[in-house]
């Protein structure tokens, strides 16, 4: 990607000024969080992969990668909530598959059923991260090292790659978590596995989460 394209990512700031132009953008900015948008010297870079509905990190900078992103075949991938959180704190620049920098508004629009995260769920994720917790998608392994694979392989090259990736699961899953996973209570489902701040956290051996967060599904009009 050209330097110009990466520099254009800084133009996301104009969306803060123009936030009232579109009624459809109200939900994105109503909480005033973007007024705290930060800009850092060391910024990681990633590209959004539509088939995966995830971002592939192409350049990692900073220590946040110890507790963010999942590793597959030596590459680091981020779900939309991780990607958006890093962009909001000024730690990540995101481009599309053609190398064109995505605006902040365009990244917000990727919050959808396809990406597995909607706006309210992202707010929960962002709040937990702002409190210092280590947060990951429920039941999704941070790394394939030491894990069994239910079906398929860990390849990230085909149309079924996302399903194969998400089918990887840790060994020795807690029976308590299994019990809740099998329950259907008012459409409540597991969202995130949450760990207390821990400087010794390792993706290859994260241990049991401090707690798992369950949220009631929200049905958005189509």
Main beta-sheet annotation: 5 strands, mixed
Radius of gyration: 18 Å
| Strand arrangement across the biggest beta sheet | 3-4-2-1-5
Which class best fits the helix and strand makeup? alpha+beta
Instruction: List the helices and strands in order.
Output: HHHEEEEHEHHEEHEHEE
Give the name of the CATH architecture of the domain at 44-140 and 179-214.
3-Layer(aba) Sandwich
> Mean pLDDT score, rounded?
76
According to CATH, the fold-level topology of the domain at 44-140 and 179-214 is: MutS, DNA mismatch repair protein, domain I
**Individual helix count:** 8
Poorly predicted runs of 5 or more residues? 13-36, 149-159
CATH top-level class of the domain at 44-140 and 179-214: Alpha Beta
Distance between the ends = 35 Å
Amount of helix = 10-25%
SS strand fraction: 15-25%
Domain tRNA-splicing endonuclease subunit Sen54 N-terminal: 36-94
GO cellular component, one term: tRNA-intron endonuclease complex
InterPro entries: tRNA_splic_suSen54, tRNA_splic_suSen54_N
Keywords: Endonuclease, Hydrolase, Nuclease, tRNA processing
């Amino acid at each position: 990607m050209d330097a110009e394209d990466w520099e254009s990512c800084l133009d996301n700031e104009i969306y803060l000024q123009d936030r009232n132009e579109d009624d459809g953008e109200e939900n994105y900015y109503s909480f005033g969080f973007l007024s705290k948008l930060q800009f850092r010297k060391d910024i990681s870079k990633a590209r959004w992969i539509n088939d995966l509905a995830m971002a592939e990190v192409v350049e990692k900078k900073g220590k946040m990668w110890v507790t963010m992103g999942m590793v597959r075949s030596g590459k680091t991938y981020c779900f939309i909530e991780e990607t958006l959180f890093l962009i909001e704190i000024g730690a990540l620049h995101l481009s599309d598959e053609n190398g064109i920098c995505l605006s902040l508004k365009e990244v917000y629009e990727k919050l959808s059923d396809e990406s597995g995260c909607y706006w309210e769920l992202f707010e929960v994720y962002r709040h937990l991260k702002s409190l210092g917790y280590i947060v990951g998608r429920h039941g999704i392994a941070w790394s394939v090292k030491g894990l069994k694979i239910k079906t398929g392989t860990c390849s990230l090259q085909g149309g079924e790659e996302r399903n194969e990736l998400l089918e990887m699961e840790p060994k020795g899953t807690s029976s308590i978590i299994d019990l809740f996973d099998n329950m259907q209570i008012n459409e409540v489902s597991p969202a995130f596995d949450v760990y207390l701040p821990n400087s010794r956290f390792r993706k290859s051996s994260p241990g049991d989460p401090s707690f798992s967060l369950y949220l009631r599904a929200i049905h958005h009009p189509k």
